[in-house]
Amino acid sequence: MAQSHHPNYKKIYVTLLVLLVISVAGPFVGIKWITLIAAFGVAVVKADLVIQNFMHLKWERRIVKFALASSLLLMFLLFAGVAPDVMRHTGHNWVNDAALAATARGIAPPHGAGEAAAGEAGAAAGAHSNGDGGAGTDGDTAAAPGGAGSGAGQPDTLRR
Amino acid sequence: MSRPIATTRSATGIPTGRLAVWWVLASEVVIFGGLLASYLLHRLGHPEWANAAAVTNVWIGAFNTFVLLSSSFTAVLAHRAAEHGDGRRAARFLLMTIGGAATFIGVKTFEWYHEIVEGYTITSNGFWSFYYTAAGLHALHVIAGAVIMAFVARDAARGRELQRVEYVGIYWHFVDVVWIFLFPLLYIAK
């Protein structure tokens, strides 16, 4: 507490609230990349404002920045190390049957979507997962359970 | 009066108490970072989760973001008051921060109650497992922060251990930062 730095907190707070409005408004534009930037780009800016000014990391000793940076690095290491196994469901010598089946089975849309449209939306969910399987490396493996899933009609993993 | 060694010794140029808080946060980054990274990996690998994510209420999430941002604001005002030696004022701002924590938990309870009643539970599917685990772990941190702030505020009001106002504030802002990332991950990306 020796050196005291106090920026204009009110200004930072108001900026944070404006950024919050932007991240909520983003999806209403209906363009995917705007939604993503409004959601995650703005989140990074908000977090940075809080960390630098409220947590006073801006004026903190370098050792703290190193400690935080190395734990963040561990997080990215985890992400990079596990990504090939989790984000893909098939590889050269392996197939993740459970993940493929889950993707093919799909998830029923929320109740709010309307009961009448449920069947139609269910089929759409099936088609969606098929499309995704096709985009993967092994179209055949992915398409088979997908077809079975949508053929069975109402894929419903949520209890009502 | 003799003071505990942690508040007086400073090998790094940082008060040891504050350094300890930073170490806690560095390990918290690994805990929450690992959880959020796993969620992101699964979410990208399972496009069908979008249907489950569509259930979450963006307005409730946005309101709770507003509550946490405001509580961070009062926490930093408490820090400034403590640095000016005004313990009573610092305690008042800390109580307002605790009020924010209570509001957050109240809203969360309302939200979870309705989701669980509608049948969306931690075992429904992968999305809901992550949803309840991540938001639940975060809520536990909110509760812990509120309890610690109550102790710090009690001392601060009597003009004691004012440096702790800053330490608990740093922790509280971290809890805010975690929510800043949870909000788009669970509520906006659909």
Outline the structure in words.
- The complex is a heterodimer of chains A (160) and B (190).
- With 160 residues, chain A is an all-alpha fold.
- Chain A folds into two domains: 75 residues, no CATH class; 55 residues, no CATH class.
- Helix content of chain A is 69%, strand content 0%.
- Chain A is built from six helices and no strands.
- In chain A, helix 1 runs antiparallel to helix 2, helix 4 packs antiparallel against helix 5 and helix 5 runs antiparallel to helix 6.
- The termini of chain A are far apart.
- With 190 residues, chain B is an all-alpha fold.
- Helices cover 81% and strands 0% of the residues of chain B.
- In chain B, helix 2 packs parallel to helix 7, helix 4 runs antiparallel to helix 7 and helix 5 packs antiparallel against helix 6.
- The longest helix of chain B has 32 residues.
- Chain B is elongated and about 55 Å long.
- Chain B starts with a helix and ends with a helix.
- The interface between A and B is large, with 68 and 65 residues.
Counted by DSSP, the helix tally of chain B is 7
Residues in helices of chain A, as a percent range: 55-70%
CATH topology of chain B: Four Helix Bundle (Hemerythrin (Met), subunit A)
Q: Averaged pLDDT of chain B, please?
A: 93
| Estimated radius of gyration of chain B | 19 Å
Q: What structural category arises from helix and sheet content of chain A?
A: mainly alpha
Please mark out the parts of chain B with pLDDT under 50 across 5 or more consecutive residues, or reply none: none
- How much of the sequence lies in strands of chain B comes to under 5%
Portion of residues in beta strands of chain A equals under 5%
- Quickly name the level 1 CATH class of chain B: Mainly Alpha
> pLDDT average of chain A, as an integer?
76
**Intertermini distance of chain A:** 55 Å
Radius of gyration of chain A: 23 Å
Number of domains of chain B: 1
